[in-house]
Write a structure and sequence with these properties.
The complex is a heterodimer of chains A (about 130) and B (about 60). Chain A is mostly helical. Chain A has one domain (about 10-130). Helices cover about 70% and strands about 0% of the residues of chain A. Chain B has a single domain, classed as lambda repressor-like DNA-binding domains (434 Repressor (Amino-terminal Domain), Orthogonal Bundle). Classes of the chains: A mainly alpha (about 130), B mainly alpha (about 60). The interface of A and B includes residues 7, 9 and 134 of A.
């Protein structure tokens, strides 16, 4: 879905650019956090603002996907919706399973933000196999 | 949905890209229609019918009768 091939539509090109922009923001803040850029934050307000700042690109990505669907034809719209629903469903099921594993089986704790990269990992695995709108 | 879209398109010497431009849809959508991976909306089916100047049922096989 992120390929910028010769036959891609204008809507798809815009989607790729928007996705890259949001992913870059998401990655940049996380890399900065890994390298300790936010280690000195003590105020809870500042900490929550940081959490919101890291999460904002996730909401932005949802907007980019909805924009792609709005700007595309009916086939691309149906296919995108189907790929998104299947990926989100699998990611939620997997993460819920892990969460219940933590509650009942003593599985190690997985932070909630992992659901987003998990969603994209699942998307990358299932999207190539969803080729019909039915 | 079974259809004669590919036949009608190639009779005119059009590429999928050209047909897509004429219909206002992507090449991928034309390919999906031709390979029966997408059932067109009523609106798109009528646009295709107008473009080829044929009734819808000349192009798309009625699956219900």
């Amino acid at each position: 879905m992120l390929a910028l091939g010769k036959s891609t539509t204008l809507a798809h090109r815009r989607y790729v650019i928007r996705t890259m922009a949001f992913m870059a923001g998401y990655a940049a803040v996380n890399v900065a956090a890994i390298f300790g850029a936010f280690d000195n934050i003590r105020s809870p307000v500042a900490a929550w603002l940081l959490a919101l700042a890291v999460s904002a690109p996730v909401a932005g990505q949802m907007w980019a996907t909805l924009s792609l669907m709005k700007e595309s034809d009916e086939f691309v719209r149906s296919l995108t919706a189907k790929q998104f629903i299947v990926s989100a469903g699998i990611a939620m099921a997997l993460f819920s399973t892990w969460g219940f594993g933590e509650s009942y089986a003593g599985a190690p704790h997985a932070p909630g933000w992992l659901v987003y990269p998990l969603f994209w990992g699942v998307y990358g695995c299932v999207a190539p196999f969803i080729r019909t709108s039915r | 949905m079974k259809n004669r879209l590919k036949l009608l398109r190639t009779e005119r010497g059009w590429t999928q890209e050209q047909l897509g431009q004429a219909l206002g849809v992507s090449r991928q959508a034309v390919n999906a229609l031709e390979t029966e991976k997408h059932d067109p909306s009523l609106d798109l089916a009528y646009r295709i019918a107008v473009l080829f100047a044929r009734p819808v049922e000349d192009i798309f096989e009625n699956p219900h009768g």
